[in-house]
Each structure stands twice: as C-alpha cells, then as structure tokens.
C-alpha cells in the first residue's frame, strides 16, 4: 500500500492530489468517423474528497469512468492516479493499479454467484498474492465494516440487492485503495437500498476515503460534496460550490 | 495469484457446471475408453497366442535335419538323417553351448498300437527323460520315463491323452499293456492334454518310449535322430542358444560358410511373432480409429470452452477489473481445459476397465489392460485438454475489461 492510504476515522488535515487529469482525450474511430468521447478533460480530485461525476447518457461519463478506473487507455493527455502516471502502463501494470489503488463498485454489483460473500470480498486480495489467512481476516473485517458481519457465508443469490451492493463495497474497501470508484452504484436499487448504500459511502467519506461517484441522477450526485458535470466529452461546468460537511 | 489457487478456481468452475462438464468430456471419455479397450484387446490376443505357444515348451528351439539330394531331386526338410545322437550329446555339453539348458533328441516313427482288440496308429517317439521338461508337458497319471528305463531298455510307454482315450476308451490305462510292432509294453504314465491347438494334432496323439527300447522293438536308428529339442536357459538367451547350436552343428558337420546347412533350427519366438503380427496390425488400425474419436473429443472441449469464455465474459471482465492479469486469466482457462481432459481420461479409463471386465464374458476374448498404456492414455487426455484450451484461454486473456463488463 502507498503511504497516502488513510485508515483513520478522521479526515486528514492536509489534502493531497489523488487524481489529476490533464487534457485527457479519448477518440473512437469507427471507419471514417471519429468520435471524440472525451474532448479534453482536465480535473483534479484531492485526497479524501467525495466527488460526483454527473452527466446524461452519451456525455462521455462512462468513458471517463473507464479511464479513471484504468479499464481503458487514453488517446492523449495525462492521467496520474495516486502519483502514478498510468497513461503509458502496459496491461499487467494496469492490472496491478486496478488491484491495489482502485476499489470498484458497479451498477450490476458484479459479484460471482458461486462464491460466498467473504470469498467475493477476498477476490482482489487473491490477485495481489496476499496469504490466505490475511485475506480471510481482512475480508471479514471489510464485511463487518459494511454491516454484513453476520452474512459472510451467504451467496449473492441469498442476499438482497442492497446487501449485494454492500458486499461489493466491502470488496472495494478490502485492498485499502487510494480511491473508490462507484459507477451508478444505486442504479439497480430501490430507494431504501439506495439510501442505504449512499449512507455507507457517506460514512466511508467521513472516515477519510476518496470517493468518485458516477451517476446521471441529480439526487444521487447531491450526496457528494462536489459535482462535476460532463457534457459532450467536456467538463461543462466545474462546480465549485463545495458542500460543507455537517459535523 | 498462486498456481494452486488458480487450479482451485478452475476445478470449481468445472464442478459448478457438472452436467455440462460431463457432456464436454464425453468425447474424450469415449476416446480414451476405446483406445484402452482396443489396446487391451490386442494385448490380450497377443498374450493368448504367446501362452499357447509357450505351452509347447518355453524357450524352445527345434533342430530338424536338412534336405537330402537324391539324383538331383532335393527332398524336404527332415528327409535327411544328418542329426545324430552324438550331435545331441555335444549340444548338451555346457562348454559348447552354455545357454542351452536341456537337450531332448527324439526318433519318431508311425506305428500301429494294439490294446486288446483295439488298434490305433500313432506317432511313436523314442525319447529321453529330458523330453518331458523340454516340451513342458505334465502327466495326468503315472510317471514319465527315467534314465534307468533308457539304460535297461525297459518296455514301458507313456501315452498322449488322445492315444490313451482311443486305446482304452477313457478308462485310464496305467498298468495295462500295449503292443507296439509286436512287442508288449507296459503303460507307466499318461500325458495331460497339451491344450495347444496351434500345432498339428500329434501333440496329444503319441506314444513315448525310451529311445533304446524303440531301437530294439521298432527298429528306429540308434545313432541318428529325427529331431533335437533344445531348451534355452531363459527367453533372453534364446538367440544366444540359437547361435551356439548353429555354430556347434556347423562345426560338427564340417560345414563352411559356403555350404548349405544340412539342418534347420526354428524357435517358438518366430512362430509367436508371425502369429502376433496380424493382431498388432489390427490393434494399430482400431487404435487409430479410437484416436480419431479422441481428436473429436478434443474439438468438443475446445468448442465448449469457447462457449464458456463468451458466457463468462462478465466474470472475466470483473476478474480483470479486480486485478487479474491476462496471464492469470489464461492460466485459469488452460487449467480448466486440462482439468476437463484429466476428468475425461480418468472416467474413460474407468469405462475401459469396466469394458475389460465385461467384454471377455461376451466375446470370449481376453483383454489385458497394461499400466503403461493407461498412464499414456491419461497423459494423452490431459494433453488433448490442454491443447484444446489454448485458443479459448487466449481469447479470454485478450478480452478488454470494459467490453467484458459492459456485456449484459
């Protein structure tokens, strides 16, 4: 883990830049036609920030999410995550970055149905070569953290949607990543579970986690302390109206 | 991710889709089962022929006289009387032929045997006590000839199973008397049936006399012999014994390399080889057909693995998002295919084993499953699985995580 990882419950006093995008462009070529999914995005996210990236479908926010998650490469520009320039990393290094620095939460939960909750949570640790005993301990701790300490042996099919998403959050937490990247985490949840998950993210933010939330819903985006609007592959309106956290 | 864990993931994936996995490996199962059964059948047939021929006398060499030339007409093998009792004694000398364990010279002639009012024409063999051991014969009753029988020209006879049955109509015969060419002999022993069906009928239809008595009563030669049976010390020394006998006889008969040998030595080995050559060809042919079914089985595994990869695109994408490298993904799917191959091999061998147990009861053919053939079949099954997995595993490894995750 990097030294920037925060385990404490208090927010750090001094903020560091966790995420820095400089004129990031992503162009898809389909025959003659060139689609500029990202047309030059620059933004920074400080350590411990809770940022929502918002935009309608087709705005390029999904592409942005893929770039941020190191699931896709950029056409041009610079992207530094936790001090590492990821623009020119190869497949294996990108896999390592995804494994250690990013915790993903997906709309579809993306849990493996054949594995119990704790086995799902320990999965990222398997790929980082953590010894089994440590993995189990950390997976159980992460499940405890999201309030599912009593459901560790349940399979995803035996859990509600909200519970499944909490398992996914535990999986995102377990590697102690620099950033939690949540892609429409509430898109498949009813309003109660949505509140549930948003409260959980809020709690994690309170504990000092850096969270980037991608959504098209204003109510969900409102949970974040800063909202970045994306339209036509550009940041349309950098929202500086930081929400101050109520103590 | 460590190898053992990747293996565990692969095995779990196979176990999870039990029905599909079973259907996937059906081809390999059938292939391995039929290969092992075919090879087992061929091996069984070879063993049977070998056992039959070994029943004639293991490690046996047969020395026959060469052909004679009378007025420009060459007679067949055995028509000459070039083999002598002195030749046989020379071959029995350990200094001359160390790899020959026993020597049994015989004189044979066809004679009419009479027991009471029953007559029967049989092959009369003038032999030495060594004959029984060299020809690997067992007695059904009584005793065989002894050295003192030979020395004292005893009027005793040992009858073959068929001969005794003809003369005494199945009512034994030991202690009864048989007349050969006017002389009366006492039956002292009966040979057990040789069980050999591959030789001419004479194996069970014969009367064995001491060769000295045969010379007295039947008038066979006391100096020349019809055939000399040799027993090598072991099957490994058979060809050495052959060389020694050939060299010794050539020298005794004053032959130079240019002369045509006036004797012929044949071995059981050559007969076995001739008999098994056909079986071997058939085994290879059937094994080839079974091998093709194995190949088809491999293609089946590849097919299902490809389906599996595209079905599990999301899973692959997720694993990649969580930090799995292309190498780890490739290894996972390769191991999955290998596990399928191994399972197919093991089940195929089990079916082959069951077939080897049931088949002999149905078609009266022995099936011999050998350990090395089974091991080879397993290796092939695993290899087929591995090779079939290469392409699907490569596809899985190359999947881009975004494409994989987006797939609904």
Features:
A: Rossmann fold; six-stranded mixed beta sheet; 27% strand; globular; disordered C terminus; B: 408 residues; alpha+beta; 2 domains; two-stranded antiparallel ribbon
User: What percent strand of chain A?
Assistant: 25-35%
Order of helices and strands of chain B: HHHEEEHEEHEHEHEEEHEHEHHHHH
Globally, the shape of chain B reads elongated
CATH superfamily of chain A: P-loop containing nucleotide triphosphate hydrolases
In the CATH hierarchy, what is the architecture of chain A at level 2?
A: 3-Layer(aba) Sandwich
Low-pLDDT parts of chain A are 1-13, 243-247
Overall shape of chain A: it is globular
Number of strands of chain A: 10
Number of helices of chain B: 14
Largest interface: A-B, 25 and 22 residues
Structure in words:
The complex is a heterodimer of chains A (247) and B (408). Chain A is of the alpha/beta class. Chain A has helices at residues 61-68, 91-101, 117-127, 132-145, 161-173, 191-206, 218-221; strands at residues 17-30, 33-46, 50-54, 76-81, 84-85, 102-105, 179-183, 211-215, 226-231, 234-238. Chain A has a six-stranded mixed beta sheet, sandwiched between helices. Chain A is globular, with a radius of gyration of 18 Å. The two termini of chain A are 29 Å apart. With 408 residues, chain B is an alpha+beta fold. Chain B folds into two domains: 3-52 and 273-406, no CATH class; 81-261, no CATH class. In chain B, 55% of the residues lie in helices and 18% in strands. Chain B contains 14 helices and twelve strands. Chain B has a six-stranded mixed beta barrel with strand order 4-5-10-7-9-8, surrounded by four helices. A two-stranded antiparallel sheet of chain B has the order 2-3. In chain B, a hairpin with a 2-residue loop joins strand 8 and strand 9. In chain B, helix 1 packs across helix 12, helix 3 runs antiparallel to helix 10 and helix 12 packs antiparallel against helix 13. The mean pLDDT of chain B is 82. Classes of the chains: A alpha/beta (247), B alpha+beta (408). The interface between A and B is medium-sized, with 25 and 22 residues.
């Amino acid at each position: 883990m990097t030294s920037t990882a925060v385990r404490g419950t208090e927010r750090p006093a001094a903020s560091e830049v966790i995420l820095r995008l400089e004129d990031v462009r992503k162009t898809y070529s389909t025959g003659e036609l060139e689609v500029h999914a990202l047309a030059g995005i620059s933004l920074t996210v400080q350590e411990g920030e809770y940022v929502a990236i918002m935009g309608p479908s087709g705005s390029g926010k999904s592409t942005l999410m893929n770039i941020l998650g190191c699931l896709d490469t950029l056409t041009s520009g610079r992207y530094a995550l936790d001090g590492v320039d990821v623009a020119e990393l190869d497949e294996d290094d990108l896999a390592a970055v995804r494994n250690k620095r990013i915790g993903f939460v997906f709309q579809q939960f993306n849990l493996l149905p054949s594995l119990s909750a704790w086995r799902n949570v320990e999965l990222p640790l398997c790929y980082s070569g953590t010894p089994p005993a440590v993995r189990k301990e950390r997976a159980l701790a992460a499940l405890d953290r999201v309030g599912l300490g009593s459901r560790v042996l349940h399979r995803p099919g035996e859990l509600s949607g909200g519970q499944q998403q909490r398992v996914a959050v535990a999986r995102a937490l377990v590697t102690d990543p620099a950033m939690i990247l949540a892609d429409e985490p509430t898109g498949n949840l009813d309003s109660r579970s949505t509140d549930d998950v948003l409260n959980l993210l809020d709690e994690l933010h309170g504990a000092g986690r850096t969270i980037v939330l991608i959504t098209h819903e204003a109510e969900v985006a409102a949970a974040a302390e800063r909202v970045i609007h994306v339209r036509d592959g550009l940041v349309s309106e950098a929202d500086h109206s930081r929400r101050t956290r109520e103590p | 991710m460590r190898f053992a864990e990747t293996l565990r993931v692969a095995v779990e994936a196979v176990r999870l889709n039990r029905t599909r996995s079973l259907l996937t490996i059906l081809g390999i199962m059938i292939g391995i089962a039929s290969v092992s059964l075919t090879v087992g059948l061929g091996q069984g047939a070879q063993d049977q022929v070998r056992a039959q021929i070994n029943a004639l006398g293991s490690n046996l060499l047969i020395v026959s006289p060469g052909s004679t030339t009378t007025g420009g007409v060459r007679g067949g093998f055995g028509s000459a009387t070039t083999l002598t009792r002195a030749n046989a004694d020379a071959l029995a000398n350990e200094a001359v032929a160390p790899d020959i364990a026993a020597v049994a010279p015989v004189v044979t002639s066809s004679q009419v045997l009479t027991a009471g009012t029953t007559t029967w024409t049989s092959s009369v063999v003038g032999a030495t006590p060594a004959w029984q051991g060299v020809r690997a014969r067992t007695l059904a009753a009584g005793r065989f000839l002894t050295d003192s029988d030979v020395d004292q020209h005893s009027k005793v006879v040992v009858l073959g199973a068929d001969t005794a049955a003809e003369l005494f109509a199945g009512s034994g015969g030991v202690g009864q008397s048989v007349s050969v060419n006017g002389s009366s002999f006492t039956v002292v022993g009966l040979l057990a049936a040789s069980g050999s069906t591959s030789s001419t009928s004479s194996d069970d239809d014969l009367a064995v006399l001491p060769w000295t008595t045969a010379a007295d009563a039947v008038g066979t030669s006391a100096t020349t012999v019809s055939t000399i049976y040799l027993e090598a010390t072991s099957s490994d020394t058979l060809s050495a014994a052959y060389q020694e006998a050939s060299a010794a006889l050539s020298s005794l008969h004053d032959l130079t390399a240019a002369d045509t040998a006036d004797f012929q030595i044949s071995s059981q080995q050559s007969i076995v080889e001739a008999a098994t050559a056909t079986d071997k060809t058939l085994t290879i042919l059937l094994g080839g057909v079974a091998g093709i079914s194995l190949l088809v089985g491999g293609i089946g595994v590849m097919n299902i693995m490809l389906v599996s990869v595209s079905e599990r695109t999301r899973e692959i994408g997720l694993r990649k998002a969580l930090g799995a490298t292309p190498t780890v993904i490739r290894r996972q799917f390769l191991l999955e295919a290998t596990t399928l191959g191994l399972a197919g091999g093991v089940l195929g061998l089990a079916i082959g084993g069951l077939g080897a147990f049931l088949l002999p009861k149905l078609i009266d053919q022995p099936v011999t499953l050998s350990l090395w053939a089974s091991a080879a079949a397993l290796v092939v099954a695993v290899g087929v699985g591995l090779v079939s997995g290469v392409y699907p595993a490569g596809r899985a490894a190359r999947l881009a995580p975004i494409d994989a995750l987006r797939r609904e």
